[in-house]
Amino acid sequence: MTMSNTGGRRRPPTIHDVAREAGVSRGTVSRVLNGGHYVSPAAQEAVNAAIRKTGYVVNRHARSLITGRSDSVGFLLTEPQEKFFEDPNFNILLRGCTQALAAHDIPLLLMLAGTEDERRRITRYITSGHVDGVLLVSSHSGNPVAEELSEAGVPLVACGKPIGLGSKISYVAADDRDGARDMTRHLLSLGRRCIGTVTGPLDTPGGVERLAGYKEVLAESGIEVDDSLVVSGDYSRLSGERGAERLLAQVPDLDAVFVASDLMARGVLTTLERAGRRVPEDVAVGGFDDSPAALASSPELTTMRQPFDRISAEMVRVLLAQIGGEDTAAVILPTELVKREST
User: Fold this and answer.
1) What one-character-per-residue DSSP string does 255-298 give?
2) pTM score, two decimals?
3) Predicted pLDDT of residue 60
4) Phi-psi group of 295: left, alpha or beta (phi > 0 → left; psi -120 to 50 → alpha; rest → beta)
5) How far is CA 325 from CA 86, 126, 145, 172, in A?
6) Nearby residues of 103 by Cβ (< 8 Å), 6 or more positions away
7) What is the pLDDT of residues 2-34, one digit of tens each?
8) What is the distance between the alpha carbons of residues 220 and 225, in angstroms, rounded to a whole number?
9) Which H helix or E strand runs over 217?
């Protein structure tokens, strides 16, 4: 802190104090604070050392008046609020994005928009310039938010490939289809031939791609995919329970289930236990995500690991590049089979 000339009261250090301490111009300090462009390494190090010594903190409000930016990013979840607390994947992504943005000193605003009214309010808030860009999680086809934000020129990166929007929107995704193929092949390698699936929502990219991968491998193996082997879920544990009930009723000789999320797979395990089916002796169960739900299950779940840390980091990287003026981009990351007790 620096002493003022009035009454000895301390005032916060300013950019002028940093410049004086570093022995550089105010303009050089400003360039360092705004990304370090056209600044020599020696000058940048001197400015950073002066910032640490003086305790200078950027006045975000003042800078936003000059740059026209808010210096914040939105994390937008277009799901009912209870889904945010139930599904561990959302919290993992939120934590990862928060940490990745913290390295750039950018705060992340959590936005929940599960109803039509909430979506309209959030869209107005975003397009009014309150955030510089949006990380969109859980995008359903027919949900207009992604397209509206894109058309308004808001930098946007989706988690998962938005259905029907092609190259309009940047996205980062795990390879859902290839992951489903790997899991289905694993179940076949165990000698299982009556393999059902509980899908994710079929208006989401993950739901569509994981079902497609499952069907492709069965077809390649000469196994007909009967409609009775496929039931849909919504990624909740309850939908996993109900999905397994329908599968057992429709396919009594079921010997394996590929479940499109770990949380739903826990529900499947509950139903199988209730029905007296042993896992994996009678029915092998494979999940998807490698979320905390996989280790909390009994038995522990064989699953497809999504690289959530990399997904979060890439979402932030692509968004910041887009805020900086770069074009849209698509990143697809590989999944990994993790074998545990349920298969």
Assistant:
1) -EEEESSHHHHHHHHHHHHHTT--TTTT-EEE-SB--HHHHHSS
2) 0.78
3) 53
4) alpha
5) 36, 18, 22, 18
6) none
7) 544 444 556 778 888 889 999 998 888 878 876
8) 11
9) helix 205-220
Which tokens is 70 given? 């808010």
Output phi, psi for 222, to 5 deg: 80, 20
CA distances to 95, 153, 190, 222, 298 from 282, in Å? 38, 53, 12, 23, 15
Residue range 109-124: mean pLDDT, rounded: 91
Q: Tell how strand 2-3 and strand 10-11 pair up.
A: antiparallel
What is the SS3 assignment for 169?
Answer: coil
For residue 171, the SS3 value is: strand
Residues 45-49: contacts with CB under 8 Å, at least 24 apart: 46/22, 47/18, 47/22, 49/22
Which residues 6+ apart lie within 8 Å of 113 measured at CB?
A: 76, 77, 78, 119, 121, 122, 123, 145
DSSP H or E segment with residue 88: helix 88-102
Contact indicator for 297, 266 with CB cutoff of 8 Å: yes
Q: For 157-205, how does the pLDDT look when each residue is reduced to its tens digit (9 = 90+)?
A: 999 888 877 678 899 999 999 999 999 999 999 999 999 999 999 988 8
Encoding tokens for residue 208?
């569509």
Structural tokens at position 144: 């207009």
338 versus 326: which is more confidently predicted?
Answer: 338
Sign of CA dihedral 95, 100, 105, 109: negative
189 closest CA partner among 89, 302, 76, 105: 302
* Cα–Cα distances in angstroms (integers) from residue 107 to residues 78, 118, 132, 236, 252, in the given order: 20, 22, 11, 30, 52
Handedness of CA 162, 168, 174, 178 (dihedral sign): positive
